[in-house]
Amino acid sequence: MDLLAVVKNDDLPSSVIKLSNRKQLDAFRYGAAFARGAVINEDDVSLIQVSGTAAIDEHGVSLYPGDIRSQINCTFDKIDSLLRHEGAGLTDICAATVFVKRPEYAEVFWEMAKNRGLDEFPAVCVVADVCREELLFEIDGEAIVKKGSEEAKDTWNA
Known about the structure:
Elements: E1 15-19, E2 37-41, E3 45-53, H1 68-84, E4 93-100, H2 104-115, E5 123-127, E6 137-146, H3 150-157
Parallel strand pairs: 4-5
Antiparallel strand pairs: 1-2, 2-3, 3-6, 4-6
C-alpha cells in the first residue's frame, strides 16, 4: 500500500525533504515505491527517517546472498552513508527495527553492532520476512540531529 498524507495547519515542520543515498539507487528507479529516507526539519532538531534498508547495490541488485555477516555490514554502511549526508551517523539513531529472517541472526546482529561501537543500539529485533527472499537482514529507523543554540540543545535534553 502506498500512502501520502497531507495536513493543512500552522503547526507544520519547517521542511520535509526526501533523501537519496549515493550508495543505493533510488528505489523508484527499479520499480519499488518508497524513498530511502526523509528529513523532517524543526527549529531545534532534524528527525531523519530511514526506510527499510538492506544489502542492495546501486542498481537494485541484492548483495551477499546467504551471507548474514556481509549483509549486516553492508546495511550498516548504506545507512551510515545516508545519515552522513545529513550530518549524522549510526550513533544518532534513536529508534530502529531490525528484521532478521532467522532467530539466530539476531545474536549475530547484536555482536556486530557491538563491534561497531553500538553497544546500546536502540533497536527491536523481529524475526520476519525481509523485503526479498535472498536477503536475510534489514533495518529501518530514526535518527535525531540537534541543531541551533546550546539553549535549544539543552531544552531537547530536558
